[in-house]
Design a protein that fits this description.
Pfam families: CN_hydrolase (PF00795)
Radius of gyration: 23 Å
Oligomer: single chain
CATH superfamily of the largest domain: Carbon-nitrogen hydrolase
CATH class of the largest domain: Alpha Beta
Distance between the termini: 36 Å
Number of strands: 13
Largest sheet: 6 strands, mixed
Family: Belongs to the carbon-nitrogen hydrolase superfamily. Nitrilase family.
GO molecular function: nitrilase activity
Number of domains: 2
Protein name: Aliphatic nitrilase
Number of helices: 10
CATH topology of the largest domain: Nitrilase/N-carbamoyl-D-aminoacid amidohydrolase
């Protein structure tokens, strides 16, 4: 990327189809086509938009949420799958970087996942929300450090976090230290009330200012009919209104265009990447303003896996086997390899 490059970015504020994954995907693909008509090069959708954010978990007690939870399992996205293939094709067709929030199903668990597709259709990043918030912990598993990664795309260096991950300063710093140029933020929207929108605005403006990057944030939207379908309790329905702050923020911490806080729409802005250097000339949080000899972040970027297989040693006697058939012991040089591997494992454990 060059300092003088301009990127046209957009954030979608949109209502999902709360009845089917296919219905929500149709809305996604229609929005992509509409954005393409506006010359958009980077497009961002809300948090876990496909098939929908689990709004039910915010207003229903756990003992009553089983049916809706299972329905979410049934409609969730697998990666790879038909939905990721459709998004890759759309990104490739329109030459657009697309960031989509999904409920990812991985066997018996659901995860809050963010997918970044490059303009050639490549899935550059799949990451999972590190720690689901409050009611979300009944719905989703936890992510790991492997997803705290900034990726090079046709629109620049892009990093992503979901919702209250922005309240984890070390998670944000991990992306800042990888020199993200465009930070993608995703929130559910239509939740908590106006105070949520205010908190979102404070959070994304601060990150843009501290990181010296652009922030493109998308929040979801629920219609009155959809709110009533989630809960018939008029008192609880108030908890499913407000909280929308679809916005695009520049490196100086200011809105590039006025935010979208009501209804559906696509917010579009041209991002002048030269403003990043202008901001960082004064204050580069991970460069000349940092003191890494005093304070630095250590990130475990290994994927978290429940099973690590160490292959057992078999004792075949044919030529070229790992064991010497005549002496029934490891072939020459193989034992040294085992020692080297074990030493490396012990050293990593000590660190």
């Amino acid at each position: 990327m060059t300092d003088s490059q301009t990127i046209r970015a957009a954030a979608v504020q949109i209502a999902p189809d709360l009845t089917s994954r296919a219905g929500t995907m149709e809305k996604v693909l229609n929005a992509v086509a509409e954005a393409a008509g506006k010359g958009v090069q980077l497009l961002v959708f809300p948090e876990t938009f496909v098939p929908w954010y689990p709004y039910f978990s915010f207003v229903l007690p756990p003992v009553l949420s089983g049916r809706e939870h299972l329905r979410l399992y049934d409609q969730a996205v697998t990666v790879p799958g038909a939905e990721t293939e459709a998004m890759a094709a759309a990104a490739r067709r329109h030459g657009m970087v697309i960031v989509l929030g999904i409920n990812e199903r991985d066997h018996g668990s659901l995860y809050n996942a963010q997918l970044i597709f490059d303009a050639d259709g490549t899935l550059k990043l799949k990451r999972r929300k590190l720690t689901p918030t409050f009611h979300e912990r009944m719905i989703w598993g936890q992510g790991d450090g492997a997803g705290l990664k900034v990726v090079d795309t046709a629109a620049g260096r892009v990093g992503a976090l979901a919702c209250w991950e922005h309240y984890n300063p070390l998670a944000r710093y991990a992306l800042m230290a990888q020199h993200e140029e465009i930070h993608v933020a995703q929130f559910p929207g239509s939740l908590v009330g106006p105070i949520f929108a205010e908190q979102i605005e404070v959070t994304i403006r601060h990150h843009a200012l501290e990181s010296g990057c652009f922030v493109v944030n998308a929040t979801g939207w629920l219609t009155e009919e959809q709110i009533a379908s989630v809960t018939p309790d008029t008192g609880l329905q108030n908890a499913l209104r407000g909280g929308c702050m679809t916005a695009i923020i520049g490196p100086e911490g200011r809105h590039v265009v006025p935010p979208l806080t009501e209804g559906e729409g696509i917010l579009v802005a041209d991002l002048d990447l030269g403003l990043i250097t202008k901001r960082k000339r004064m204050m580069d949080s991970v460069g000349h303003y940092a003191r890494p000899e005093l304070m630095h972040l250590v990130l475990d970027a290994r994927p978290a896996q429940p099973l690590h297989l160490n292959a057992p040693l078999s004792r075949p006697t044919e030529a070229g086997s790992l064991f010497d058939g005549e002496r029934n012991e490891p072939a020459a040089g193989f034992a040294d390899g085992i020692v080297d591997q074990r030493t490396a494992i012990l050293r990593r454990a000590a660190v």
